[in-house]
Amino acid sequence: MSIYTHDVIIIGGGAAGLTSAAGMAQLGLKTALIEKDHMGGDCLYYGCVPSKSLIKTARVRQLTKNSRMYGLPEPNQGSNPASAEDVMKHVHSVIKGLEPHDSPERFRSLGCDVYLQGAHFISEHEVSLDDGAKLSAPKIIISTGSSPRIPDIPGLQNTEFYTNREIFSIDTFPKTMITLGGGPIGVEISQALSRLGVAVTLIEKAPHILSREDDDMAGIIQSILQDEGVTIITNAEILGVKNSAKGKTVLYRENGTEKTVTAETLLVSMGRQGNISELKLENAGVISKRSFIPVDNKLRTNKKHIFALGDVNGNFLFTHTAGAEGSFAIKKIALHLPGSFSYNNTPWTTYTDPELASVGYNEKRAKERGISYSVHTSGMGEIDRSNAEIETSGKIKVLLDLKGRVIGTQIASVHAGDLITPSLFAVRNKWKLTKMLGPVYPYPTFGEIHRKNAGNYAGPKLFNPGVRSILRILFHYRGR
């Protein structure tokens, strides 16, 4: 096609699409941005923003519940149960406050042509909008995101349930709830609702929740949830779901024995699937695999002028990864720069309380790659700020290669998502752990955990009889 309507077409207005659209338009490309639902994607309406708002509300209630620990009178929460109407009103007020940043008006002001409707391919360079209009471009970006995967569990299709798309619009908190799936979304929502007064039972097929994490780090979070009253059932195969007189009943097999559990409400959080069903990818010759679109290390599909960014490519389903992919697409499409996109140093955080943050290799991934490593840990209870705030649960865990370089860090702690930042540089730049001893850390802060762990690692190498003997010989010290 010799004449195109646009320089680039972007289908999907989530983090990846918005990032790439803003950059392309401001660099002078005639940019079409197509979004059929809400600009801002799942993150703004059903994911990051509402969940973090809910988690904060639940944390405030938990701190109030534990006020005696801080020398304050014990509140009478029993007579003032949490109101779902009030909580969700707060959650949606936060969403509303952030909407203008992702609004059609803002992106039109940046120079984008914004189309608030669906679209599908009619050829490898053309798309058709729901109103019949046709757009074309030499480069096309697919950034349609993902949705909750609904597993093929007998009886589930005939049973009412929530996913993360509906849970933030409930009118009343149920008395009891079953969560199917122990990944980050299920665990975060389960802890938050438990703290707000819901009796939660969480069922997970793996040996522990957060199965991609190391056993010891996930175990910290699992123990805290159990201490707070969440019932966690692991190594469980879900056999079926049905409606019952008391709500929803789940049949599962645990250690060879079939059991049932019943609750008022059911939350399904068992993975994600790419949003590709309406795109008619076959018209463009784009290959998909299990609802996701595979890409190469330049984020291109099998059609090299068509890119797939964000959740829809199935790689790392995080908002910050989608944004990074959007920035990379700007470099490739608008600036024609060389280079490849790497996920090697992608960080992530599970926003439980305490949080669990990770970057680089953990033990599971290092073993899978056959990488030799050593492990060095320090407990959060070793630093003064943790003790001052009674937030001593958790630890830092650093993996070093045979040359003493940091290849991965995990932190379980309050503010772990913020505390992981120095490790982003350590992993990316292959620092030795002792480099963490260089800065002067403000006191007292949670960030001192990096210095503490580096000191615990370096101390035995420096403070030992051999070094003392050498120093006595060289400088005639009189100490023992």
Structure description:
The structure is a single chain. Helix content is 31%, strand content 22%. With 480 residues, the protein is α/β, with parallel strands linked by helices. The strands form 6 sheets. Strands 3-2-1-7-17 form a 5-stranded parallel β-sheet. Strands 18-19-22-21-20 form a 5-stranded antiparallel β-sheet, sandwiched between helices. Helix 1 packs parallel to helix 8, helix 3 crosses helix 4 and helix 3 packs parallel to helix 6. The N and C termini lie far apart (84 Å).
Can you give the helix content as a percent range? 25-40%
Beta-strand portion reads: 15-25%
CATH architecture annotation name of the largest domain? 3-Layer(bba) Sandwich
CATH names the topology of the largest domain as: FAD/NAD(P)-binding domain
Give the beta-strand count.
22
What number is the mean pLDDT? 95
Sum up the overall morphology in one term: globular
Question: Main β-sheet, in a few words?
Answer: 5 strands, parallel
Side-by-side strand order of the widest sheet? 3-2-1-7-17
Give Rg in angstroms: 25 Å
Instruction: Tell me the number of helical segments per DSSP (H or I, 4 or more residues long).
Output: 14
CATH class of the largest domain, named Alpha Beta
Provide the number of structural domains: 3
Report the CATH superfamily of the largest domain: FAD/NAD(P)-binding domain
First-residue to last-residue Cα separation: 84 Å
* Low-confidence regions: none
- Helical/strand content category: alpha/beta
